[in-house]
Write a structure and sequence with these properties.
The protein is mostly helical and 200 residues long. The chain has one domain: Arp2/3 complex 21 kDa subunit ARPC3 (Orthogonal Bundle). The protein has 7 helices and 2 strands. Helix 1 crosses helix 3, helix 2 runs antiparallel to helix 3 and helix 2 packs across helix 7.
Length: 200
Amino acid sequence: MQKRNKLRVLTVTALFAAVATVLMYIETPLPLMPPFLKLDPSLLPILIGSFILGPGAAVAMALVKAVVHAFSSMTGGVGELADFLMTSAFACTAAVVYRRRHTKRGAVLACVCGTAALVLMGVVANRFLLIPFYAKIMPLEAIFSACSAVNPRITGMGSYLLYGVVPFNLIKGAAVSILTFPVYKRLSVQIQTFMREIGE
């Protein structure tokens, strides 16, 4: 029975990870945001999967997505590492909160806490991973000049984080959270049915 349960979780985790990996290629720039910060919907299946399967599965899905994209990376894996950290922070935080409060209000709180974790990790990842990497390719002045061209408030590292990274990840977390609610309940029932069938 335990082996069957592990097979169910592994199968569903792989399905969500595959969907997230594909969705990561769909990128959309946002107005007034730095040009290299682009919105993609890959967090959606990972958040739903974390609600169904828990934080461990969330990390596994985020890792699969990052590893697959690392093979076509233009950042030497730095961008994928940053994405892994941010995705894990978001989905794991949300999953832990939702497991403790398995209600509609709990889901809302989970998304709020997950978004806060995403914003915090986004600041850390950009400050210590992404910007240092890009600084090896072009001067920091050129990076912030490109950001200033779309948002004049961005003139340096502090303003980049405040007016670029923070609002971008707030929008990303909010968008994923809003999209999750109409999808989760129906999809969770289908996934639970699927898990029972493959375990029989």
